[in-house]
Amino acid sequence: MLEIGIDLDDPWWLVAVFVFDLVIRVAAVIIVPRNRRPTAAMAWLLAIYFIPFVGVFLFLIIGTPRLPRKRRRQQRAINEYIQQATADLDLGTLRPDAPEWFTSLVRLNTNLGAMPLSGDNDAHLISDYQESLDAMAGAIRRAERYVHVEFYILQSDAATDNFFRALEDATARGVTVRVLLDHWANRGKPFYRQTLKRLDAMGASWHLMLPVQPLRGKYQRPDLRNHRKLLVIDGTVAFMGSQNVTDSTYNLRKNIRRGLHWVDLMARLEGPVVESVNAVFLSDWYSETNEILSDEVDEFDLRRSTGDLDCQIVPSGPGFEFENNLRLFLGLMYAAQRRIVLVSPYFVPDESILNAITTACHRGIEVELFVSEEGDQAMVYHAQRSYYEVLLRAGVRIWMYRKPYILHTKAMTVDDEVAVIGSSNMDMRSFGLNMEISMLVRGGEFVDEMRRVEDKYRSLSRELTLEEWQKQPLRSTVLDNLARLTSALQ
Predict the structure, then answer these.
(1) Class of domain 69-94+122-308
(2) Beta strands 347-348 and 426-427, pairing class
(3) Least confident of 110-119, 236-245, 356-365
(4) CA 184, 190, 193, 196 torsion: positive or negative?
């Protein structure tokens, strides 16, 4: 019987292992830092140097945040088309006397792939979880032509039954219903198969976003996500924000056992901005199906509303060359003159965001940050905590929304006239890996609504002080710092 093995007395195998290890380390120094943040590059290099085989394997699987070349070409094509199609449109009357910095920021967003700024919009917030689901269902029941549904998580359960029945009623009336849901976020979750069967039974046209199905020729980095949440009805009404279409517990046993419930914020929109939200859906539909919905793309029906808000939709994600949401947040932080309020359930900033926040404090700007007292994702929760001390020392007021609720809202207000709401957290995953949608709004009446929501959150939170934080046990500090190191692996 032929035996193949390594002769431990033969020094050549040691030489081969040494040379192989050296080649990996040299190659890593050349390949890993290219076009990558220094912190992320250092984290990957440490992983490869200390656990070489595991580190190399992980880097090959999730080492690049870029979408496949075909999808990047599709994203560029749809961006160029939307810019051309909207170049000569009347996008409503903009509010007068916009600050120079706001005009400059809008130009930045547009240059990076955002929709044009439009005026004459109406936007109202819905902060109650079930009320939001029912409001979307009510709008769907008034649909006459089409309903476009795109959510990171979409589940047919008791809480969302009214939403799904509204879709069923719409298809029964002959309304076209198109649905997009993220593959990896829904795969294996409760009610996944039941949800797809229900979509099939009603006659909806549905597709998975960013599917990881190599046997079907569909593959990209497996931890990329389409994290957007949006709904468009007939080009006249849209909803967008942080809420998924699922029960507030996400129907997960671990959440139910801990009594966790999600707190979210959605915006109901009317006016020209609705077509901007629809353009994001159309681009994602094209990316997943190669189908251009020509009847809707060729004619942007920009309808006025009774509102007076200036709104700009800012999509972001690995299909874009730059981190659009990160640059939007940075621009707003450096432009603030009096006050910044941040709401982010997963707050793991990169150096630029951290510097912008602490710089704002040193400029005398009042800065508040709302986070959850309890976390649902251990690594992110501990990574987030590792930033609390530097924030507190800089003067940031940190409000911790009391457990067992997870404050899932993603929003930002600047001074008294500008706000952002959407699906994007302030963490490196949302900046580099997730496909997100944010809305920039200029209008004091909308900021007033945001302030009322912030006041409600503040009444349900407790303030974290530096004195309390300095009493944290050593084990918590160690966990926080270890999680902080791994957060840069992207």
Answers:
(1) alpha beta
(2) parallel
(3) 110-119
(4) negative
**16 C-beta neighbours (distance < 10 Å), count:** 11
The answer to whether domain 69-94+122-308 and domain 324-486 are alike in fold is yes
Q: How many residues does the chain have?
A: 490
pLDDT tens for 75-129 read: 777 767 666 666 655 688 899 999 999 999 999 999 998 899 999 999 999 999 9
Tracing tokens 């797809």 back to the chain, one arrives at 196
Beta carbons of 53 and 265 less than 8 angstroms apart: no
Q: Which residues contact 133 (CB under 8 A, 6 or more apart)?
A: 159, 160, 162, 163, 243, 245
CATH of domain 324-486: 3.30.870.10
Per-residue pLDDT band at 298 (split at 50, 70, 90): very low
HSE-CB for 194 with a 13 A CA cutoff: 10
Beta carbons of 93 and 311 less than 8 angstroms apart: no
Alpha carbons 280 and 75: distance in angstroms, whole number: 10
Structure tokens at 17: 């292992």
Rounded to 5°, the CA angle 250-252-258 comes to 100
Global pTM reads 0.88
> Where in the chain are the domains?
12-62, 69-94+122-308, 324-486
Could you tell me if 419 and 412 are in contact, meaning their C-beta atoms sit under 8 angstroms apart? yes
Instruction: Give residues with Cβ within 8 angstroms of 325, minimum separation 6.
Output: 314, 316, 422, 424, 430, 431, 436, 438
Q: Write the single-letter amino acid at 219.
A: Y
